[in-house]
Write a structure and sequence with these properties.
There is one protein chain. The chain is built from 6 helices and 5 strands. It has 2 domains: 102 residues, no CATH class; 51 residues, SH3 type barrels, CATH 2.30.30. By secondary structure, the chain is of the alpha+beta class. Helix 1 crosses helix 2 and helix 2 runs antiparallel to helix 3.
Length: 179
């Protein structure tokens, strides 16, 4: 009985065994979940003190994704069988990333433009702007700036969804006294 417990304890701490790999997988998953929860909690505390939370929302989401990504990379580096698989996977991912990058040019352009809007802040939530749309020039209030789209509300209470790549490429008129 004691011998079985000693073997189980040895296997549990050895990342080269299935039991050890599963144990470390759970440890790294729990650590990533705890770190992501910590990021969310910190973002909620800071959110109360900000008037524009667009940048905070982005930073919080990025921090959570990074927590899981770093945890997975560290886990894959710890498990011997995954190290060799990781090298082969890296070569395959580079080809797939080129294909996906070409296929998702518009989406990626909106995300990069969204980062630009969040960092440089030419407009903020609550600003009244004039923008040229297919219906003509529209005067609207900025409601939300996300990474993909900016949501405006016009005088008729219609939502105007503008891709961020358009927001950064077009001339906006920010009406005075609105900031």
């Amino acid at each position: 009985m004691n011998h079985s417990i000693d073997i189980l304890q040895h296997d549990l701490l050895d990342p080269g065994t299935l039991v050890g790999a599963a144990f470390y997988g759970l440890v790294f998953l729990a650590a990533a979940m705890a770190l992501a929860a910590l990021v969310r909690r910190a973002a909620r505390r800071v959110k109360a003190h900000l008037s524009d939370v667009t940048g905070l929302s982005f930073a919080s989401a990025l921090g959570q994704v990074l927590a899981y990504l770093i945890s997975f990379v560290l886990y894959a580096h710890l498990i011997p069988e995954l190290r060799a698989f990781g090298t082969a996977l890296l070569a395959g991912v580079s080809v797939v990333s080129v294909v996906l990058g070409l296929a998702a040019q518009n989406t990626l352009a909106n995300i990069v433009a969204g980062l630009s809007l969040v960092l440089y802040r030419p407009v903020r939530a609550g600003d009244r702007v004039q923008i040229s749309t297919p219906k003509g020039v529209v005067t609207a209030t900025v409601e939300v700036i996300s990474l993909g789209y900016t949501v405006l509300r016009d005088a008729d209470h219609n939502q105007v969804l503008v891709p961020n790549s358009v927001m950064t490429a077009t001339v906006l008129i920010r009406l005075e006294g609105e900031r």
